[in-house]
Amino acid sequence: MSLLEVSRLKASYGEIQALHGVDLALDESSVTTVLGANGAGKTTLLRAICGTVSRTGEISFAGERIDAAPTASIIRRGIGHVPEGRGTFVKLSVEDNLKLGAYARRDRGAAAEDMERVYGYFPVLAERRRQQAGTLSGGEQQMLAIGRALMSRPRLLVLDEPSFGLAPKIVSMIFEIMARIRDERQAALLLVEQNAALALDFADHAYLLETGRMIRAGRAADLREDAAIRRAYLGY
Ligand code: ATP
User: Fold this and answer.
1) Between the chain's N and C termini, which has fewer beta carbons within 10 Å?
2) How far apart are CA 142 and CA 161, in angstroms?
3) How far is CA 3 from CA 32, 38, 214, in A?
4) pLDDT(93) > 70
5) Per-residue pLDDT for 235 more than 80?
6) Which residues contact 211 (CB under 8 A, 6 or more apart)?
7) Is the pLDDT at 97 greater than 80, yes or no?
8) Which helix (H) or strand (E) element contains residue 13?
9) pLDDT for residue 55 is more than 90
10) Res 50: pLDDT
């Protein structure tokens, strides 16, 4: 059984249908990336899984249906969302942002342990724990968004363009931390990433979304060798 199974998923914004019946499955501790042009529906797919956009179809996580569940319940079951634009609360301190990531949890003691673990991944956040999130650099805000999602102890971390707007050195660091999260916490990762080469090198599996439909799925290494994908997404 896959950790996450999505079938016939549809989602719309009023009259605009963004997903037209999407299927996707991923396993425990695996990395999956979704490629697609602007407006293909990648962000909407992640939102639909996390319950922040209305959707129809079936979504099962760890063997249970979550397609009718509210977002808080989805987080509690083990899906952490690092949304596009990071979604940090700019007026709150770093530490209060992290605490908000644990709001769906009931085991406060373990949440304190998790905060220390997040500071272990991102020591710069520990140094700035009392600083307002809005004063952090873009890279630090991305680290905070990932840290906040980790506070719910996710079995699946869903990340929307974590490298967006960041310097190459920071991007490498974020990818190293994502690899550690997979290895040390056995978390699965579902990644939407503008840097397709980086995403395909990092991922085990890849999907290609085009105007709300999945048109390809396979091993990331195979898609990386595909001539059409190279031309469209890798630029050679
Ligand atoms: P990008 O790479 O530009 O972020 P994407 O693949 O993530 O694109 P989505 O953002 O999911 O694509 O958008 C899919 C479709 O849904 C597009 O036609 C987009 O215009 C529309 N859409 C997205 N968000 C909204 C919204 N909040 N209200 C209305 N339409 C939206």
Assistant:
1) C
2) 10
3) 12, 28, 19
4) yes
5) no
6) 20, 39, 40, 41
7) yes
8) strand 4-13
9) yes
10) 95
